[in-house]
Amino acid sequence: MNLHAKLLEREAAEKPVTVALIGAGKFGTMFAAQVRLTRGMHLVGIADLNVARARRGLQMAGWPGDAFGALSLDEAHSQRTTFVTDDTEALLRDPRVEVVVEATGIPDVGIHHCLLAIANGKHIVMVNVEADALVGPLLAHKAKAAGVVYSLAWGDQPAIICEHVDWARAAGFKVVCAGKGTRYEPHYHASNPDTVWGILDRYLSIADRASINPKMFNSFIDGTKSAVEMTAVCNATGLVPQTCGLGFPAATRFELADICKPASAGGMLEKEGVTEVVTSVYRDGRDVPHHLALGTYVVVEGETDYARRCFKEYAMLPDESGRYAALYRPIHMIGLELGISIASCALRREPTGAPSGFRSDVVAIAKRALKAGERLDGEGGFCVWGRQAPAELSLRNELLPMGLANDVKLKRDISEGEPLRWSDVDIDPSNSAVRTRREMEATFGPRMARFAPAAVT
User: Fold this and answer.
1) Is 438 part of a structural domain of the chain?
2) Which of 2, 100, 189, 384 is the most exposed place for a label (fewest CB within 10 A)?
3) Using CA of residue 27, residue 32, residue 38, residue 42, what is the dihedral sign?
């Protein structure tokens, strides 16, 4: 609770926390809007392949021109300005940078940047949750061995959910379920970058379509992003996926404890101790009132009659039985809140959520009938969507991780709704992301007590 005080100490000592940002998209721009105003923190440099876009983002975020006019890293450090460059490795190798924010959103690129940051003694804040879902447990393991911190990004929902879980357990509660809200209908799994506008236009008013990357946005719509984020939560908290992945039940904020509890207790979960994402749309298309589309939540169990009585007395959103109760946060503010992670890593050497095991995976599912010879186009594309799955199930059946389902050619026909396997595609074993993923499987697979027995459907 004293991060601000610690930042002020660094400011007084004229040793601000030094940060490098890799990727100047929406998340990075939102972070830039706040870091310039954060005392005790200095954004030394921004690396993006499109330097002009990065500069426009800073202008949009309210930066005066002289705040990012540094001609070199040396000048940025000495004058407390920001260097904008397309040379990512120069930032990652600069010994004066303490914390690296990886915000590219591209799994293989994020893995490369993370490993290079670790090798150069930097703490890493992994906004790139796609890379975390693919190989996060191994990256966190390597960071710890190197004496640096690997952290999920505060402001993004996974880190906030991890905080909910930590709060509940530190207060002595059993966590029954944790997750977030979204907008979901079953047919969204088939959504692609061409059809996504028909969905977005129903609830978002986007005047400038050129400002939106439809493939990226579609990954939120088709269910992939939810699977990715809940995988990050499971691997960081010890919660586990449900066997068939996310069910996306409809729930108001006030029904969370009734819906997100085990079926044996009248809810809709397979068991306790899992993740779930609730939708803001009923299956008949009606909007859910008081929904949680942008929020996060945790459901806990009161294990004594007294605690259950307190749930009711203090309006902690109990279920009908009074046994379970929910706590929620209605929104998340993306990059505007990212400074919490950076300060925690640099000043406390504590992550705001980090993988501690390989419990959950995201596997590629065919959106439509696919033909041998087609090339998969990755997250948010036309070919596959990502479903959360227990890691044991993924490994046992050699299911293809969603993070590797991009720019690879199919070797056989795949039916709509069928999970893909490694053997279904031409995989280059020398690819760095493939090698890192296989290293993670070899590192964490033997630690699993048993494999899930169910067949894949």
Assistant:
1) yes
2) 2
3) positive
